[in-house]
Specification:
The chain has helices at 20-40, 50-64, 75-91, 100-109, 122-138, 181-195, 214-232, 286-307, and strands spanning 7-19, 159-163, 166-173, 199-204, 233-234, 238-239, 246-258, 267-278. The chain is of the alpha/beta class. It has one domain. A six-stranded mixed beta sheet has the order 1-8-7-4-3-2, sandwiched between helices. α1 packs antiparallel against α2, α1 (20-40) crosses α3 and α3 (75-91) packs across α5.
């Protein structure tokens, strides 16, 4: 069989700059709506949730024209914007019938600090998992959570997707530091193998690009995606041993940047950068077609989540 190299695609979506006070006011509205939807869906939202804390930061920005304490380089302010955008995407794509597992994960994602430390990354990890689900929903799929593992004491994938009679697992990872990108990816690959499904591992590197400009962040995402491909697939030879079940790998970042230091004219834009690779030993095989199917839907879904932020008003 002729071995094909890993085929990757890169994308960059940029929401045109919006006035800081405008996008912050919309962020407050998004959070208020998200809180109503979460509670209506049966999620037990803590009174001091990450959404409440982000709302306070954005309300200050609306009133003062500045993210606390200054809008350039302030992770707290930009993280608050990102939280508002993420949970808007999450809550607008919840299934009609509440699921106990999702309610628990969403509740746990709201506990703690806006930008939790490395030792308490559980909330941010669950947030990213929910965004990945929202992207697939926006692309027209119906991801679901497995209720149990067919192999005892093996963790389930974050999501399962069905295509015909086959099921594919998706693992979402969110490392805080660059040095943890590959280890978390390998962890995701092992989890899919332990569950006994093929699928993809998607790594949210948003926390790794804090403080970078948009060009540097785009380069970082591209390099991270290439590193992940190299871990699972050898150019000219195919899958590395133990990675034959990995069909899709990728890195992406969905973050907000300020672009003006003047309080009266402060602007914010939102960037989405991604590098995703299809891993299949040959073209026109079932694995090749299904890997492309996974990649296409994730790319489309992420873009739709981000494009919805480009116009005034809430995402639809």
């Amino acid at each position: 069989m002729r071995i094909r190299p890993a085929r990757s695609s890169e994308s960059l979506t940029v929401v045109p700059p919006r006035p800081l006070q405008d996008i912050s006011a919309e962020g407050v509205d998004r959070i208020d709506q998200s809180l109503r939807l979460l509670r209506g869906w049966g999620v037990r939202v803590p009174q001091d949730s990450r959404l409440h804390k982000a709302r306070a930061v954005l309300l200050h920005a609306v009133e003062s024209g500045s993210l606390v304490p200054i809008h350039r380089g302030d992770a707290l302010g930009l993280r608050s914007l990102e939280i508002a955008l993420d949970y808007d995407s999450i809550t607008q794509t919840l299934p009609e019938v509440p699921l106990a597992t999702m309610r628990r994960d969403l509740r746990d994602s709201l506990v703690g600090d806006i930008d939790p430390p490395e030792a308490k990354r559980g909330a941010a990890q669950l947030q990213s998992q929910a965004v990945v689900r929202a992207a697939f929903v926006r692309a027209g799929l119906s991801p679901f959570h497995p209720t149990h593992s067919p192999r005892r004491q093996q963790p389930s994938p974050d999501l399962l997707l069905e295509n015909g009679l086959s099921r594919y697992g998706i693992e979402a990872k969110r490392p805080q530091a660059a040095g943890n990108i590959v280890p978390r990816f390998l962890e995701g690959c092992a989890q899919l193998a332990g569950f006994g499904v093929s699928g993809g591992v998607l790594v949210d590197v948003s926390d790794c690009v804090r403080g970078m400009g948009s060009r540097a962040a785009g380069d970082f995402v591209s390099d991270a995606g290439a590193d992940l491909m190299a871990e699972a697939f050898e150019m000219g030879s195919g899958h590395r041993p133990g990675f034959g079940h990995i069909m899709l790998v990728g890195a992406y970042a969905r973050v907000a940047w300020t672009c003006d230091d003047q309080h009266d004219h402060a602007m914010v834009n939102v960037h989405l950068a991604s590098r995703l690779a299809v891993l299949a030993p040959a073209i026109n095989t079932l694995q090749d077609h299904r890997a492309k199917w996974l990649r296409q839907h994730f790319e489309v879904g992420l873009r739709r989540l981000t494009d919805a932020l480009g116009a005034p008003g809430r995402a639809v």
